[in-house]
Amino acid sequence: MTQGVEGIEVEVSCQIGAGCMYDPIKNIVPINGGEPVTLEHKAGEVWLVDFWATWCPPCQAPMQHNEDMLKKRAADWGDKVKIIGISIDNTAEAVVKHVNDKGWNSPIHYHRAGSDCSQQYGVRGVPNVMIIDTTGKIVFKGHPASRPDLEADFDTLLKGEAITGAGTEAEAPAGGDAAGGDDGKEMDFDAHNAVIDKFAAEIGPALQADETIKASAAKMQRAFCVFVL
User: Fold this and answer.
1) Contact call for residues 46 and 128 (beta carbons, < 8 A)
2) Least buried of 102, 115, 123, 155, by fewest C-beta within 10 Å?
3) Which fold has domain 25-158?
4) Residue ranges, CATH 3.40.30.10, the chain
């Protein structure tokens, strides 16, 4: 389509998910300091990569479960199962204090720092985890609550068998389902931007001025609105 046409830039991207091979995560930093590292998967290991944050209430129970599980199964799993926490906090110092206060030292902890891993793996919220099997294939990606028995999952994967259920299937292409979705209809960006502009100019300020909402928001660790197009 663009052959022989000058001045054209084409950007191609794809989201990595269940069914894809793990693509090494680069430029994350150990929470206790050091140079940025690249996470290379080693054949024979099962990984749980947990994107989380210290300020995220739903992240706390899964991280405690990670700690408890690794301690409980240490003799069975040895170094064949690794749980890797990647914090999206603003600073690594906050993560160090939180992890030490909670005693969550069994998982391997990193700070996202300057890494683009959230974009690489389409992480739009936390907690978000992915499970990688012994061959380096991503066999699950999503909320940890979707995998109620991670111990059984890890045992199954260590035997070279497959896990099934929600989050283990390859995701349909963006913009429609596997059968074609919206039949290729183009999105009306002007209409969507008009909605966003109206929210920014009228609805948002009205919500911010509402005393009931302000009182509720004051109790939250984070209170914000995100538009995703």
Assistant:
1) no
2) 102
3) Glutaredoxin (3.40.30)
4) 25-158
